[in-house]
Write a structure and sequence with these properties.
Order of helices and strands: EHEHEHEHEHHEHEHEHHHH
Number of strands: 8
Helix content: 40-55%
Radius of gyration: 18 Å
Largest sheet: 8 strands, parallel, barrel
CATH class: Alpha Beta
CATH architecture: Alpha-Beta Barrel
Length: about 300
C-alpha cells in the first residue's frame, strides 16, 4: 500500500440531526472525535453518507467550516464536490475556499447517464477547474452509470491532480484492472466496506468507509492489518464485523449506520425525508449483533 495521507481508512461522515431536523452540531463534534480517536486516517465531509441532497448550500458551507474548526488539523479533510451539471460544478470549484481541505471527492454524474466519453469530459473539466487534488467516485448503484476501468485509467494518466478513485462498482475484476493499469502513484480506494481487505490484497490502498462511523476502532484495525500486508489476520479481524456491516446497508445508507449509532448512544435516529429510520426488525438485528460480537 502507498504511504499517502489519503491511503488507509477514510471516514465517510454522517450528518446528525435533531428532532426538528436541524443539524446537531454537538453530536457532529462527538462523531468527529469518535472516528479520529478510533483510528481513521482522514475524514470525508459531505459525501453520500452525509445526506447531501437534503442539505442547503448554506448548511453545506456551515458543515465544511465546522469540520475545519473541530478537526483542527488532526487528520486531513476531503470534501464531496460532485454533480450532474458540469458547468455549474466547474463554477463552484473555481469559487471554492480551499483552506484546510486536502482534496475533493467527485461522484460520477447521476441521472444523466453519460457515455464513457461524457464521463471523461466531465472529469476533464473538473480536473481543470479544481484547485485541489481530485478523488473520482464511481458508484453505479446510486448514479445509474458505471465508469469503466479504461476511463478511470485514462483520467489518471491525463491529469496529475486526479490522484485516486473511490471504487464502489462491486466488480473486483474492474478494480483489479484499475490497480494494474493506472499510474503507480494513483490511489485505489474501496467504496464497499465488505470488499476492503480483498481490494487491498489485490494492491488497493484503503477504503472510504461508512462502517467506521459506528465501529471505528474495530474497522480501522482491519485496515491497518491489511496495510501491513497481513491479509489473513485482517480477514480474521473483519469476520466478527461482517454480519453487522452487511446489516448497515440492508435498508440503504445512512439508514443502517444511523440506526447502529443510535443503539450505541452516539446520535438520535433522525433522517431527512425521503429517508426514514430503520425498521424495528433491523434495529433488533443490529442490537443483537453489536451485543453478540461486542462491537460497542
Amino acid at each position: 500500500m502507498k504511504r499517502h495521507p489519503l491511503s488507509g481508512c477514510g471516514a465517510a461522515m454522517i450528518t446528525p440531526f435533531k428532532a426538528d431536523m436541524t443539524i446537531d452540531w454537538e453530536r457532529l463534534a462527538r462523531m468527529i472525535d469518535y472516528v479520529i480517536d478510533g483510528g481513521t486516517n482522514y475524514i470525508v465531509a459531505l459525501g453520500t453518507t452525509a445526506e447531501i441532497p437534503t442539505l442547503t448550500n448554506k448548511e453545506k458551507n456551515e458543515v465544511i467550516a465546522f469540520f475545519k474548526q473541530h478537526v483542527a488539523g488532526r487528520v486531513p479533510i476531503v470534501v464531496g464536490k460532485g454533480g450532474n451539471n458540469t458547468r455549474a460544478l466547474v463554477e463552484e470549484l473555481k469559487e471554492m475556499d480551499t483552506d484546510g481541505i486536502a482534496a475533493i471527492l467527485s461522484v460520477t454524474p447521476y441521472y444523466n447517464k453519460p457515455s464513457q466519453e461524457g464521463l471523461y469530459r466531465h472529469f476533464e473539466a473538473v480536473a481543470q477547474a479544481s484547485p485541489l487534488p481530485v478523488i473520482l467516485y464511481n458508484v453505479p448503484g446510486r448514479t445509474g452509470v458505471n465508469m469503466s476501468a479504461e476511463t478511470t485509467c485514462r483520467l489518471a494518466r491525463d491529469f496529475e491532480n486526479i490522484i485516486a478513485v473511490k471504487e464502489a462498482s462491486g466488480k473486483i475484476d474492474q478494480i483489479e484492472q484499475i490497480i494494474k493499469n493506472c499510474p503507480k502513484e494513483f490511489l485505489v480506494l474501496s467504496g464497499d466496506d465488505g470488499m476492503t481487505v480483498e481490494v487491498m490484497r489485490r494492491g488497493g490502498d484503503g477504503v472510504i468507509s461508512v462502517a467506521i462511523n459506528a465501529f471505528p476502532k474495530r474497522f480501522s484495525h482491519v485496515v491497518y492489518l491489511a496495510s501491513q500486508g497481513l491479509f489473513d489476520r485482517a480477514e480474521e479481524a473483519y469476520a466478527p464485523l461482517h454480519e453487522a456491516v452487511c446489516a448497515l446497508f440492508e435498508q440503504g445508507n445512512p439508514v443502517g449506520v444511523k440506526a447502529a449509532l443510535t443503539l450505541l448512544g452516539n446520535i438520535d435516529n433522525n433522517l431527512r425525508l425521503p429517508l426514514v429510520p430503520a425498521t424495528e426488525l433491523l434495529m433488533k438485528k443490529l442490537e443483537r449483533l453489536i451485543r453478540e460480537y461486542e462491537l460497542c
